[in-house]
Amino acid sequence: MPLIENIPGATPLDDLSGLIPTHITTRQQLNEWEAANILQAVKKYLTRREPLEVSLEWLKEVHRIMFAETWEWAGTFRKKPLSIGIDWHNIPEQMKILVDDLKYWQAEESTMSVFNQSVRLHHCLVKIHPFVNGNGRHSRLVADIFLFANKQQLPIWPDNELIVASGIRQQYIAALQSADKGDFKPLEKFTAELIKR
Question: Any idea which residues are catalytic in this one (predicted)?
Answer without folding.
Answer: 129
